[in-house]
């Protein structure tokens, strides 16, 4: 995994959780992970991501919940999976560029973080950097 990518995601989530911690949440934060591919396509990314969360004191199942949704290469499933994460009221959605694009159609209120892929502005996911 590209170290710059790892630290970028970690920094974004650190800011997110710092804000959430300052507000003293009454529930455990939930991160939606949405990918058009299958879980076995790049498991090391999520191993390192979970390790980064642990390094910041966030333990999956204890003080943070990760909701994984994989379309297993069937892009037609992604909109339904995105809608499911929205119904679960996750605090943020992480996804590859295609999944993030579909998630942006499902919600305008949940922050979406693009992991890898195309430029977010070019993909129409952000107005500007």
Listing every helix as H and every strand as E from the N terminus to the C terminus, the arrangement reads HEHEHEHE
Oligomer: single chain
Kindly, what is the distance between the CA atoms of the first and last residues, rounded to a whole number of angstroms?
23 Å
Number of separate helices: 4
CATH superfamily: Response regulator
Average of the residue pLDDT scores: 83
> Strand order, biggest sheet?
2-1-3-4
CATH top level is Alpha Beta
CATH topology: Rossmann fold
What spatial form do the alpha-carbon principal axes imply? globular
**Quantity of strands, as a count:** 4
Fraction in helix: 40-55%
Low-confidence stretches: none
Q: Can you describe this structure?
A:
The chain has 129 residues and is of the alpha/beta class. The chain has one domain: Response regulator (Rossmann fold), CATH 3.40.50.2300. It is built from 4 helices and 4 strands; from the N terminus they run H-E-H-E-H-E-H-E. It has helices at 3-22, 43-55, 78-87, 97-106; strands at residues 30-35, 65-70, 92-95, 112-114. The protein has a 4-stranded parallel β-sheet, covered by helices on one side. It is globular, with a radius of gyration of 14 Å. The two termini are 23 Å apart. The relative contact order is 0.17.
């Amino acid at each position: 995994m590209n170290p710059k990518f790892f630290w970028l995601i970690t920094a974004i989530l650190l800011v997110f959780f710092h804000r959430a911690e300052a507000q003293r949440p009454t529930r455990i934060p939930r991160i939606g992970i949405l990918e058009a591919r299958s879980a076995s396509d790049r498991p090391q990314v999520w191993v390192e991501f979970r390790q980064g969360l642990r390094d910041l004191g966030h333990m999956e199942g204890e003080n943070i919940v990760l909701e994984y949704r994989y379309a297993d290469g069937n892009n037609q499933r992604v909109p339904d999976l995105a809608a499911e994460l929205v119904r679960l009221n996750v605090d943020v959605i992480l996804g590859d560029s295609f999944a993030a694009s579909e998630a942006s159609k499902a919600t305008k209120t949940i922050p979406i973080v693009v992991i890898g892929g195309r430029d977010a502005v070019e993909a129409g996911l952000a107005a500007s950097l």
